[in-house]
Amino acid sequence: MTPDKLTEFQKLIDYSFKQPKLLVEALTHKSFSVEENKDKNHNERFEFLGDSILNFIVAEELLKLYRDEQEGVLSKKRAALVNMSKLAEIAKKYKLENFINFGPGEIKQGNHLNPRIQGSCIEALIGAIYLDSNFENVKIWVLKQFTRNDFAVEVAASFGTDYKSRLQELTQKYKLGTPAYNLVLTSGPSHKPQFLVALVLNDKEMSRGDGSSKKIAEQKAAELYFNELTKAYKE
Fold first, then answer.
1. Burial class (CB in 10 A: 0-12, 13-18, 19+), 110
2. What is d(CA 193, CA 212) in angstroms, rounded to the nearest whole number?
3. pLDDT tens column, 178-230
4. Catalytic residue list
5. Among candidate residues 81, 82, 153, the one with its CA nearest the CA of residue 123
6. What gap in Å lies between CA 28 and CA 13, rounded to an integer?
7. How many CA atoms lie within 13 Å of 7's alpha carbon, on the beta-carbon side?
8. d(CA 169, CA 222)
9. How far is CA 27 from CA 35, 117, 127, 142, 144, in A?
């Protein structure tokens, strides 16, 4: 990338690098670092760093804004803010496709327009800004990419009663495994069936639920075990 291009991009993002080589690396896709350029670093390591920094900054901001919300709701809000769709939106704002270093084959295939690749490059850019300055500066830059309305995002009202989702977050938090739901029995007439479902965790049945549909039965089984697990971890 030419010095003029680097200058243009830094003006667009409103951040001037003290170490321009970090910006070059952040804007270099791995397809570029082959053959005659195999000694050139690409941006995957910065992407790894930037992803963690971005999640932390957004999580911290949500914690400040929603002091009474539970972890599950905060996680849903963060997921609504930190995703490839939002990152691709930021990339589009900065016309990122004009600045990424790609291998020639990737451009022919149109991969410079791929939203996932562009979003990953934004994560790499966040990592590079952090390495070039400090946490406070990268935090300021990241938060500028979101509006007040972004942070006012509403999660689905059904989340409170979606015990399957809430239970899965809880079992992941405590590294207990992933719940599975097995149909045990179907009874009643065909026009009005009843379903009995067993919730299984690590090959062990933890609870059962019944209902007029498998979905309802699964939610009941999840609610029973969710309440039991919540109580156990509070004691």
1. exposed
2. 6
3. 999 999 999 988 888 899 999 999 999 999 999 889 999 999 999 999 989 88
4. 51, 123
5. 82
6. 17
7. 3
8. 12
9. 18, 11, 11, 17, 20
